[in-house]
Amino acid sequence: MLKKLSKLIKLINKNLLKYLKYKNEFPSVIFKAVRYSVFAGGKRIRPVLLLLTSKAYGMNIKYVMPVACGIEMIHTYSLIHDDLPAMDNDDYRRGKLTSHKKFGEAIAILAGDALLTKAFETFCECNRFISDEKLLKVIKLISDASGINGMVGGQAADILFENKNVSKKTLDFIHSHKTGALIKASILSGAILSGADKNELKLWDRFGEIVGLIFQITDDILDVTSTTKKLGKTAGKDAKQKKATFPAIYGLEKSRKIVLKLLLEAKKILYKIKRPTRDILNLVTYIATREN
Amino acid sequence: MLKKLSKLIKLINKNLLKYLKYKNEFPSVIFKAVRYSVFAGGKRIRPVLLLLTSKAYGMNIKYVMPVACGIEMIHTYSLIHDDLPAMDNDDYRRGKLTSHKKFGEAIAILAGDALLTKAFETFCECNRFISDEKLLKVIKLISDASGINGMVGGQAADILFENKNVSKKTLDFIHSHKTGALIKASILSGAILSGADKNELKLWDRFGEIVGLIFQITDDILDVTSTTKKLGKTAGKDAKQKKATFPAIYGLEKSRKIVLKLLLEAKKILYKIKRPTRDILNLVTYIATREN
């Protein structure tokens, strides 16, 4: 699995570089800032999920690569803006200086804006093997998942509820929007672009929700149990900032049990989909058991 | 003309409100922040340009309204982010407090992000009277014009060259990218969506460039000659921040002459296009002679 995964990641990186290289790079610092954050060692979980979902339908991943890369750009923009002093105020991300620490706040804001915009331009790079209708459906889905009713709304809630007592309902809202929405959209996009039918899309929808939850709960757990060195970002920050997290509300033990339960449900759904999805299951298992 | 214009603006505002009202508005402050800036009294020049270009082809403006509204969202997001303390640090815009002054920096950044994302979702609202192919062409055009090779690149250059001696070439770059690119894209989008042919698109392209220049030079002139009250934003700010502007490089008199020359060229191009474009010419004349 890890070998297959690293091959996919290499391919994604190669394509990201292709989309983010320009003939005229003026003023150069903004182009540097964009690539700095995109190539800061991300795990590429979202584009990999999209590609693996497509592969389950026998799709040539080359055809859906622009959408996979665009989603990674949206993810990267969200990290750059989340790290800003006015937001989470983080100095390190993936073991490297955050964008505003490296290039200053103005350029960091603009680098995020540039990436979000470039994502939509990149989606349009899909060639004639993807129908215009499917592509527009996916653009609508991803913009909805990234915007005020998705990722941006989740980040807003996360900031507004800092240092406050948070109910389980609000925790669910923050997680499902801030992280879950784009992960789910990645999986759904792969399924839509590859011709999944209505019934299958329902299953992928719930599967996407579960993967988002597994990812976020594991993230919360690692913030408590791991070290800054291993994580590449400041460990223990959630508790310090009194962030709404699973361990804070359920405790570590119960949080771990929830992950296992969700993993089991994910397996059952994949079984129902009746497609060659072993690689996806392996990836989700990796997400649940990762150490950073 | 002004009556026609105010009718169009009302229609745009009605549609913007429709797109920016949600069933579930949680957390409410981010939804409020988004509408606060969109309905802060903008002149809607970009969507009006798009609609009038479409009308010259007999297009029912209802069909292209989602694209017109999406472009206004992109314009508004760019103002919110430009006003941030790390960027131009403006307290007032259109006579009202800027977003970060009203809602705080974090929410202002997120409101901008939400609007940029929502623009692309809104584009997808075009119904079957606009072909998917044309819509995708326009999405690509607008994302290119708004991104690192357009508006974002222009804003980056504007900030990087603050307090520096700027050549005419750099001034041209900043203007054509920061303001010109989206104005041109508005006009071109209207033409593409309404079925303009290749030859006409070339003419609209140059026309769009000219309108962008007229808009920006007039803006630069007003910053010198107008008052804060009339402008609704701090007058004289460009000189104070040693911004690259036309009056700074050419002087007021020559800048005014350039505007008149461009206006003449705009007229000539419209004559060549041989469509009913009197409303557009009136609008461009208004842009060149406006007082705020």
Number of helices of chain A: 15
- How many domains would you count in the coordinates of chain A? 1
Helix content estimate of chain A: over 70%
Name the helix and strand elements of chain A from N-terminus to C-terminus, one letter apiece: HHHHEEHHHHHHHHHHH
Tell me which protein chains meet in the greatest interface and how many residues each side has. Answer: A-B, 49 and 49 residues
Shape of chain A: globular
Main sheet strand line-up of chain A? 1-2
What's the count of strands of chain A? Answer: 2
- Runs of chain A in which pLDDT lies below 50 for 5 or more consecutive residues are none
Considering the protein shown, what is the CATH homologous superfamily of chain A? Farnesyl Diphosphate Synthase
Oligomeric composition of the shown chains: homodimer
What structural class do you assign from the helix and strand content of chain A? mainly alpha
Label the CATH architecture of chain A. Answer: Orthogonal Bundle
CATH fold description of chain A: Farnesyl Diphosphate Synthase
Compute the CA-based radius of gyration of chain A.
18 Å
Distance between the termini of chain A: 18 Å
How much is the average pLDDT of chain A?
Answer: 94
- Assign the CATH class of chain A: Mainly Alpha
